Amino acid sequence: MVIRWVSFKTPLLLMTLACWFLPAAGSLWAQEYENPPEVLRDAASRGAADILSELERGTPDTAAAQSLDEVWPRLVFYTVADALPGDDPHEVRGLQAYRYLAELGRTDKQLGASSSGPGSTSLAEKPGIPELLALALEHGAIEQSVSGTGLTLSTSPYAFVRVLEPDNAANFEQYGLWRRIGGSVTFDMRSEDPTVANVDINQVAEWSVRVRVIGDRSTRTRKFTKRWSEVVQPKIQARLNALTKGTSAAIDGSPELRDAADSASEALQGQIAGYLQNSDGVPREQRIEAITALTLSTLKTSVFDPISESRIKLSEETFRAITVAMSGLVKAHEDLFTAQQDLGGILDELNRSPLLTVAFTHHTKVQGSAYSDAKLLFETHVAPFDAVVNGFISWYDHPDPAFNQESVRDFGGTVELAGSVKNPFGRSKKLDVVEPILISAAYQLSRLEEASDAIHIAQVKVSIPVTTGVTLPLSVTYASRTDLIDEDEVRGNFGFSLDLDKLYALAHAFTGL
Amino acid sequence: MKRKTRFRYDVSQGETVTIKVTPIETGPRVTAADNGETLENSGGPDTPTFELEVTQVPGNSHFVIVECSFLDDDPNTAHFDFELRGSKGGVFKDVVVRKTNQIWDPEFRFTVS
Predict the structure, then answer these.
(1) pTM
(2) What ipTM was estimated for this complex?
(3) Which of A25, A176, A203, B75 has the fewest Cβ atoms surrounding its Cβ within 10 A?
(4) Mutate to test the interface with B, among A69, A219, A240 (most CBs of B within 10 A)
């Protein structure tokens, strides 16, 4: 979820800018809308940002300025409510900026290397398949004696289907089989060990293919959309009903006001187009601030003042309709804050649904012989924990009798239980929802054939989301031995995982202005 | 239906306006309202479609907001393609709500001429 607005720290500078670029609009700038309602200022700045985005996509100045129409009716409604006498319409001043609901982070995607890959901090593998290219860079090692830094790239064949077909909802369902298949390649980014004999120039440490047999945790499925429609959509609907009722009452409630607002909108769009023409090279944020200030100034001059000074009089019926709509909007905004929790709830449902995946991985060992493994990965929710169960068997491509190697390298199983606690990081506002800290405990029992020995591994891991898209995994692992050395050891690992989708979203939240 | 801007149209009394929304790289989570009333999705599960009959008096408008709900795990290229069609003529297909937009709930105004 995002919240973006423009702060007006330098109105004098903006007025100077506007007078420079808009000499004809100088009179409007004298009518600054001081301390406008938060919801009004936010909507105006979002509209300004979209105008600039249109321009940046190559839309001509005039057409880009017309994007103002997508928010103009609500701007008029908010302004009218602000200008009317009495306390009820002034509820607009208590309205916080509207925040679109968005998904919290998902934790089921295996973004790092597999549990035996270089730099892995995972003992049990989770069965989710990232449909978009994902990258994780981790540092440390668990099961190997050689430490390394792994770079894992993951994708799904569905990504290639999207090259040929539009990625709409119909094709998403039709080509669902392709979404069940995923692949990844892990590169060893620090192959400095001089004893490594078989590292190729591409530094591929392992590659993997996965097939999801049971379950689908995509938020694009019809099943999830149905849940969203049942749980979240009614609250969005209530806001839209109140908002359209308010805009209709405000604009069509008085022909005089409608004419004034329409004339102001037309003039404003012309001024914005002129400003866009003349402000090429001005930083984006300044342009947004200038357009926002111009918009608010126009609303002050053309809507607020005529109503507050009774130059335009609204009927009692219109006044009541606006008051009722504003009350409904306030209630809808309050309900939408709970809808954030509702959305989190249905996302939890989604993330706890059973998932069964079969995986094949080929390891190009940085030390020792290359081998492959097959794994059965199952994840489900056993209240209050998320449980991950893996079964695996591995075999050498070319067993080396000199090292007592046979075809089967090892086999075994892993059980992991995970839970979550509140995260004190990443919350800058009371209403921000942050991803929880994940705590897990795992145990793996395997048999290493060449050593004719069982290996016990126990691990406790904490994943701390420190900010959007960045997670810090920490773990402590006990192993009764490694595959190379017959000595028990306790090792601590740390790393960080990056979710590019979230980082892009974060970048947008900051640069959208 | 005649276009004034991408978000403003002139319509005739009794005309039916159809708004078809196609989600790309995201799910079909779309909600719409017209002058305080819910607009029901009359399309299939994959392509939300909303119809409104023009009932306002000349000079007045139908104010329609269509909110497109993105989620965090939608890629930055996710968007909703709009098709607006008037039963008495006029088809417009160039309105797009992108995840990178700041406004995900554009308001359309259909004024009775």
Answers:
(1) 0.77
(2) 0.98
(3) A176
(4) A240
